[in-house]
Amino acid sequence: MTADSNKIKWYVIHTYSGYENKVKTNLELKVQSLGMTDTIRQILVPMHDEVDIKDGNKRVVQRKVFPGYVLVEMEVNDRSWYVVRNTPGVTGFVGTTTKPTPLSDEEVDRILHAQDHAGAPVPKLTVNVGDRIRITQGAFTDQLANVSEIFPEKGTIRVLLDVFGTATPTELDASQFEAAPEIYSK
Fold this sequence. Notes:
alpha+beta, Alpha-Beta Plaits, SH3 type barrels, 2 domains, 5-stranded antiparallel β-sheet, 5 helices, 20% helix
């Protein structure tokens, strides 16, 4: 019995937090063992690369785009609904309790192709506007400054530095600064 490709849509299932990969693995195993690969086609935990900086060391880590959620491309019928709904770690479908709501084609396209359009991983910034930072690299090493703007999409901040008595806006990436120790913050 083959699924009608017009009925195959992407759905979102809610999982216990931290169980997304386990749900994906368990569901894939169930689909294989029950011979449902034509009804439940893909199971996806969307991920993106993020740069973590600890002690001045950069490392790229993968983070879940939607923690607590898994995407499933499937035809919803009584059997497929039951299989997904009764997978350990699944709390339910997104939608009403009796009828899951499929994602729109635009939403699916945006999610599935987000990685295609992503450039280099962007560092995660842990400062806020007004925070005091100490520059750790470059010509202004050890100089203190206050954060005036944050650009999360680029992984950079802007500070105003005192250069020869003039406030000069300077952009820094996450590897070039650290939070200023409290003795400098007052």
